Amino acid sequence: LQGRLEETEKLTLAGTLAAGIAHEIRNPLTSLKGFIQLGRGKNPQYTDLMLTEIDRINGIVSELLELAVPKPTTLERVRLDSLLNNVVLLLNAQANLYNVELKIGQEVEDDVFVVQGEENKLKQVFINLIKNAIESMDDGGGIDIHLTSSNQWAKVQITDQGGGIRTEMLERLGEPFYTTKEQGTGLGIMICNRIVSEHKGVLDFQNNGQGGTTVTVKLPIFLR
Ligand code: ADP
Ligand code: MG
């Protein structure tokens, strides 16, 4: 209970309302999902479509909730290298569906990257960015996730071999609802921007020479 009270105290009014609404939307969705699964035998194609759409609504609710909740107040020490390994494990299944291989490496072996912040929020950043990279690669290929560090920064570069981002579109990234995907929400990068700047970091998108995109996340290093 103590933990939950603290959670609630962190929320502003807007955040509290959003959390309440999210809860009210998710509950009936969970029942709907159950009933739809029960009737699956009759029309599996439609059933699967309905289940996918429900997952999509859940995803949108989570993103809106993320935007309504104010900045992190807990400052944990977060090991970026372990966090990235976890994110890769999480996304491997989706990557497989796209015939994409996620490759993770760091410049100096055994280097430890500790930053300060809220682990779940940082995780969200890399999930969003790597998902975008996967979704850009219709023809499959590899995504390189590379960690380097200087005295000041832990730097993560995510390089994909996807379709890239047209130059005139680069400046629109992070605008709410800007999406080129049929199923997109256009909220992912906005969320990343916010979380990264709350952690006093820098987020940057560039077309790499090979036609794909390189996303760079820099976060102030806390400990090595
Ligand atoms: P969504 O993924 O829901 O479309 P995002 O905010 O995550 O929303 O991304 C916005 C848009 O930026 C995407 O629709 C896509 O056009 C472009 N984009 C983001 N990352 C990449 C990438 N790695 N390669 C190509 N385009 C990208
Ligand atoms: Mg996205």
Account of the protein in words:
GO terms for molecular function: ATP binding; phosphorelay sensor kinase activity. This is histidine kinase. It is an enzyme of class 2 (transferase). Keywords: ATP-binding, Kinase, Membrane, Nucleotide-binding, Phosphoprotein, Transferase, Transmembrane, Transmembrane helix, Two-component regulatory system. Strands 1, 2, 3, 4, 5, 6 and 7 form a seven-stranded mixed sheet that branches. α2 (13-38) packs antiparallel against α3. The chain has seven helices and seven strands. The model has no long low-confidence stretch (mean pLDDT 89). 49% of the residues lie in helices and 21% in strands. β6 (202-207) and β7 form a beta hairpin. The chain has helices spanning 2-10, 13-38, 44-68, 80-97, 119-135, 167-170, 188-198, and strands at 76-79, 100-106, 114-117, 141-149, 153-159, 202-207, 213-223. The protein starts with a helix and ends with a strand. The protein is an alpha+beta fold and 224 residues long. The site of magnesium ion (MG) has 4 residues, from α5.
Beta strand %: 15-25%
| Count of beta strands | 7
| Major sheet description | 7 strands, mixed
Helix content: 40-55%
Overall average pLDDT: 89
Order of helix and strand elements from N to C terminus: HHHEHEEHEEHHEE
- The CA-CA distance between the termini, in Å, is 35 Å
Residue windows where pLDDT falls under 50 for at least 5 positions: none
> What is the approximate shape?
globular
The computed structural class is alpha+beta
Radius of gyration: 19 Å
* Cofactors and ligands: adenosine-5'-diphosphate, magnesium ion
Number of helices: 7
GO molecular function, one term: phosphorelay sensor kinase activity
Catalytic activity: ATP + protein L-histidine = ADP + protein N-phospho-L-histidine
Keywords: ATP-binding, Kinase, Membrane, Nucleotide-binding, Phosphoprotein, Transferase, Transmembrane, Transmembrane helix, Two-component regulatory system
Protein name: histidine kinase
